[in-house]
Amino acid sequence: MKQAGVFPNDVTFIGALTACNHSGLVKEGWELFHCMKDFEIEPCNEHYSCVVDLLGRAVYLGQACAFIMKIPIEPGGIMYNSNLYACSCLWDCVAHVRFLMQEKGLNKDLGYSVIEINGKLQAFHLGDKSHPLAKEIFNELQRLEGGWVCPT
């Protein structure tokens, strides 16, 4: 982008941080976050959330907790991915991150998925049964899960 004379904005950085997050590029994501100031972009909740997720997925839990403690803005709806720590069976870190969340008055957003069916987007929140086709959806999920065996 620099070579083309295109300057990133806050949304560009969210996309780039998310890409680093999902690709396991911790060093690159960390560097991206810190170069935001070179473009006079103040990190917002989404940027901080991406970095916490980046560190958590890489199991850099100490760094994630230290980063959370240094966030200088009011957290608003920022989400800390304590579930990543739980998946790693790192229960002490789960407890610590949840304590930090509670201390800062944060709530974890419910997970959801979005899929396209016949050209229409359908959103499904975790455990939500208010969708007009909820019964059919859950029946299909049960059918699909019936023969599935977790690979070991």
In short:
The protein has 152 residues and is mainly alpha-helical.
Helix-strand blueprint:
Elements lengths: L9 H14 L2 H10 L9 H13 L3 H9 L12 H6 L3 H13 L8 E6 L2 E6 L8 H13 L6
Antiparallel strand pairs: 1-2
Helix pairs in contact: 1-2, 1-3, 2-3, 3-4, 4-6
Organism: Glycine soja
Protein name: Pentatricopeptide repeat-containing protein
GO molecular function, one term: RNA binding
How would you describe this protein?
Keywords: Repeat. GO terms for molecular function: RNA binding. This is Pentatricopeptide repeat-containing protein. InterPro entries: PPR_At4g14850-like_plant, PPR_rpt, TPR-like_helical_dom_sf. The protein has about 150 residues and is mainly α. It folds into two domains: about 90 residues; about 35 residues, no CATH class. It has a two-stranded antiparallel sheet with strand order 1-2. The protein has seven helices and two strands, in the order ααααααββα.
Order of helices and strands: HHHHHHEEH
Q: Quote the beta fraction.
A: 5-15%
What's the end-to-end separation, in Å? 43 Å
**What is the arithmetic mean of pLDDT?**
75
Biggest sheet: strand arrangement: 1-2
- Helical content stands at 40-55%
Instruction: Please identify the structural class as seen in this structure.
Output: mainly alpha
Low-confidence stretches: 77-89
Count of discrete structural domains: 2
Task: Give the biggest sheet.
Answer: 2 strands, antiparallel
